[in-house]
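Our example pasted here:


***
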Amino acid sequence: MDIIDPIDITDAMLLSSNVPENDYPVYDAGYVYAQGDLVIDTSVGVHKIFEQAQGVSHVVTIAVPSGYISWTGHGQVEDKPLRFDSTGSLPSPLVEGTTYYVKDPDANGFYLSTSPSSGASITTSGAQSGVHTIVCNEIGKNPSAQPTYWTAGTATNRWKIFDRYNATVTENPSSIEFSLRTGGLYGGLYFAGLDADEIEITITDDVEGEVYNKTFTLIQSNSGSSFYNWGFQPIIRKQTFSLVDFPRYHNSTANIAIRRDGVAKCAMVIIGPTTYVADTEWGYGTSYKDYSTVTFTADGDMNIVLRPWTRSLSIPLSVKTGDATDSSFETLIKFRQKLVVFVASKNIRMGSLYARMVGLRTVVPGRAYSQLSLDVDGGT
């Protein structure tokens, strides 16, 4: 059994990606956002989606030529930032999306200015049409630093693949391709939440050039040696994939391509150094826990709400009795309650799991070999 200890992927490590970071508009410090507006913060170390938690919107009327904004009981104060949305056209010189400021407010209205404090009142002119809505809110509230104004969501599409959550999935037409340079040694890769046809992995060293290049198919045979099944059964694809056999080169570049005829998807990629613990014995098992809910009606009918599910592994290990037994036990204890990838089997995909160790037992049945048995509980 091998353990892959995850490396936290930083901006400096992600050399390139073909997945655009354009889920929503990039946060603009000078824009007035309405409650519920979504933005992305692409700052170093952030790369998240945020939702505006505050803001007031109200339909108003605009007087021409005075520029007076009628809004009964508005409650806005001098220099409060605002912007307009309109179903038609605003009177000149007002423009949708532009930031204006409250000037000379009274109980039921106010004037506008293009700048706070000493800005002059705007005089309107020309025709107008449609319904005009004002959005009032504070500006310059950075999403990652102002939780009062912004609610943090998931990582952006480009970075979901590195956040270690199965529920967040990076998607891209045809392929997800990226290059990583971790700055140290790594020996293992783990993929989860896959919907793809193949994965190509290329490792390049600065001195020796390309030292590894392999393409792995994710399409599984479910024919059972039946020509009919081979031709007509639905295509089954591996949803997880692990690799611990590529060469170790310090600070090498890993180029990864996840390809799919359609939209390629992947929830999690983990890269990191590997630790060999002991040989896995036959008899390891996997089980799953379903978090779906089931309710019954008065007639006995079932209402099922599908929710996430998780897997767990029970892994028996065989080691030589003596120092190897103690060493293996102490190695495993170092990973207690830490989320890592346990690779019990390199040949069966169910034998790999991103999980935490929840149980460890040692049995010394004889002088030659001892047994370790560990239980790990993790994601899908």
Remarks:
- The first strand starts at residue 2 and ends at 4.
- DSSP finds two helices and 29 strands in the chain.
- The chain has a mean pLDDT of 92.
